[in-house]
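USER:
Make up one protein:

ASSISTANT:
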Amino acid sequence: MLLWLLMRLSDVFVELGDSALDTLLKSVSIGKLKTFLLYERLKTRLHLSKLNAETLRKAGPGLMSRLRANDEELATDLSQAILISHFDLIVAVLNFLGIPHDDGFFRKDMDPAPFLTEGWQTRVYDEFKGKYPDALLLFYINHLVVELSKEDRVYRPAA
């Protein structure tokens, strides 16, 4: 498969839609951004002179436009901001899948194939729906798809 045919993080944001992006932006912890030294980087990447819950929420439509234009650097930084705000979800999902990790961080050279067996996305969704906001859960499942399984489509649960 050619690299350009693989799903990108910007595709995940776009496919999940404006409402999901709004929910994800509202869930970002400014304190965690500062703890993990991502505050200034994200503020710069978002083109904001001030970064707080209100400016982040208001930036949503402009960010979605940039994501639709495949701004992968924005998608990566935004993903980091969302994920560091939700280590509890990350640890719970990785434990559920049996993926070895150190407090939510896994080795980039790890072979995920033994852990991501047929239907893993649906099993994770079914296990954690209702425990976490749907937008966040779907975002993390699809983040794992992009980072580990290299599939070419955004996961959505069956209706």
Summary: The chain has ten helices and no strands. Residues 7-84 form one domain. The two ends are 29 Å apart (CA to CA).
